[in-house]
């Protein structure tokens, strides 16, 4: 990963994604709801860094750019990686198939990194880390609610559990009750 360009959003994503339960929550939302994990993390990062909440029009424009990259690059790499894991080529030596799968996984990660840098370039108003944490939490939740609206998703209880895990990792200084209260005040999450 040392050849990846550093960026605060990328660093945030690596830290958050490694937190307990986050990868599972993100992958659940990806599989069940068609979410782009990078967009989920972007929504969290914007709020956590004190940036204003995304408007639906702004997020739709970002999603249009992101969807093209996902459809043409990331998803095909993911499909090949999964195929190599689930249905390896039986005539090949297993270690060569595994080495190929690792290289495809590295390419997929590089494509995700490229997407994150593009996302940050498309919408990067000034950060305000001095903004009160409650307002940053509401902004992150608002961004996720806007994303759900753009996907035409009416959040269910499983979605709320996944979002709560994301918020706990994004705002580790808050207790679960504070996150639940903010989620209850954000009806679209």
Description:
The protein has one domain (8-184). Helices cover 72% and strands 0% of the residues. It contains 8 helices and no strands. It has helices spanning 8-18, 22-33, 37-48, 56-86, 94-122, 133-150, 157-170, 176-184. The longest helix has 31 residues, at 56-86. The chain is globular, with a radius of gyration of 17 Å. The mean pLDDT is 93.
Q: Counting H and I runs of at least 4 residues, what is the number of helices?
A: 8
| Strand element count | 0
Largest sheet: none
Helix vs. strand class: mainly alpha
Summarize the amount of helix as a percent range. Answer: over 70%
- Proportion of beta-strand residues: under 5%
| Rg on CA atoms, Å | 17 Å
In angstroms, what separates the terminal alpha carbons? 33 Å
Overall average residue pLDDT: 93
Please mark out the parts with pLDDT under 50 across 5 or more consecutive residues, or reply none: none
Shape annotation: globular
Task: Describe the secondary-structure layout.
Layout: H1 8-18, H2 22-33, H3 37-48, H4 56-86, H5 94-122, H6 133-150, H7 157-170, H8 176-184
Helix pairs in contact: 1-3, 2-7, 3-6, 4-5, 7-8
Summarize the structure.
About 70% of the residues lie in helices and about 0% in strands. The protein is built from 8 helices and no strands.
């Amino acid at each position: 990963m040392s050849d990846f360009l550093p960026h605060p959003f990328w660093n945030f994503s690596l830290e958050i994604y490694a937190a307990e339960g986050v990868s599972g929550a993100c992958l659940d939302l990806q599989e069940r709801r068609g979410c782009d994990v990078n967009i989920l993390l972007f929504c969290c990062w914007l709020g956590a860094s004190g940036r204003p909440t995304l408007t639906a029009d702004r997020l739709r424009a970002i999603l249009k750019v992101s969807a093209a990259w996902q459809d043409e690059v990331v998803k095909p790499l993911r499909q090949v990686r999964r195929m190599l894991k689930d249905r390896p080529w039986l005539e090949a030596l297993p270690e060569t198939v595994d080495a190929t799968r690792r290289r495809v996984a590295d390419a997929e990660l590089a494509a995700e990194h490229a997407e994150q840098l593009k996302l940050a370039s498309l919408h990067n108003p000034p950060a305000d880390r001095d903004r009160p944490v409650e307002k940053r939490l509401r902004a992150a939740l608002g961004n996720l609610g806007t994303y759900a609206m753009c996907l035409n998703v009416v959040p269910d209880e499983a979605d709320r559990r996944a979002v709560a895990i994301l918020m706990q990792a994004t705002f580790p200084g808050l207790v679960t009750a504070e996150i639940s209260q903010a989620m209850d005040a954000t009806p679209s999450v």
